[in-house]
Amino acid sequence: MKLAQIAGLAGMSALIAGVVIACSPTAEPAPEGDKPGSATTTKVDYSGQALAIDGSGTVYPIGAAAAELFKEKNGEVNITVGKAGTGGGFKMFIKGETGISNASRPIKEDEVKSLEEAKIEFLEVPIALDGLCVIVNPKNEWLKSITIEQLNKIWNKDSKVKKWNEVDPSWPAEDIKLYGPTDAHGTYEYFNEVVNGKKDNVRPDYSQNAEYDPLVQGVANEPHALGYVGFAYYMQNKDKVRAVPIDGGKGAIEPTKETIVDGTYSPFGRPLFMYVNKAKMGESSLLKGFIEFMLSPDGAAAVEAGDYLPLPADATDLIKARFEAGTTGSIFNKAGAGQSVTAVLTASK
Questions:
Q1: To 10 degrees, what angle do helices 285-294 and 60-74 make?
Q2: Residue 165 near residue 210 (C-beta atoms within 8 A)
Q3: Which of the chain's ends, N or C, has fewer CB atoms near its CB within 10 Å?
Q4: Are 249 and 338 in contact (CB under 8 A)?
Q5: Does any domain span residue 225?
Q6: Same domain? 179 vs 142
């Protein structure tokens, strides 16, 4: 299967109604080199093991692509990948139902407390970079950029804004049709914290979508719509919607791979995570092997297959060191929005 097929978000749902890959034993030595006495490596036998991954819909394309690539490298393995949303995924993780919880925002203190009460230690593993994108209909050619303050005026829970010109008199006197994810999604929480100051500070009268595909389609069908999604969903639908440059206080910046990686797309550039159950990792070579895979060039290929951005090499080295040391707990839940992954990791050393 081609990675381009895996990366297609619509194709993902058909491919993986929870990516289940059949299990069969593999344990054949693979020779390296032709010289007598050259070293050999042995494929790890993952037969009889299973790995359950769930959580963020934003991270889902990465997890699905990684599961497929891992199978190609290691033989048939039993991995399921779901997309219950970041919050929904953490609820499953706290119950011990999953080995990995995908997240599009850092774990919350109340979730950390619940894990402590459940006696579950966890490792925090950043795996990719994303840029939250504010999207409009392509017919909207007049909205050249938008500020965080203007987004707040539209989206906060006390907002009475109904028409575009109520935000800026130079904008048209047309009704704004708002689209966004439900509160089960980390993208919802991240957007509201950055724009409105709190994750639950949001007006209730917008079109709430449990899935991102209908959200994108809603914006694509409404000439005066406004919504927000992760970078991959924007990239997969560039023919249907347009991303609006964001002015976070230093001028309008368009979301691109370059601006997300170099940190200039602030405050909407963000890391994506996999949270790992430490005890389950000790019990499962499949779980440990999958995270090691995610931190390898193969994992970076899975990130790119999902239309997200691999972490810089210096950040990956620091993440590997924390993972290999078995360092538990979160350092990103106290980091400021838009702070670079490398800076957060370096400060924690």
A1: 110
A2: no
A3: C
A4: no
A5: yes
A6: yes
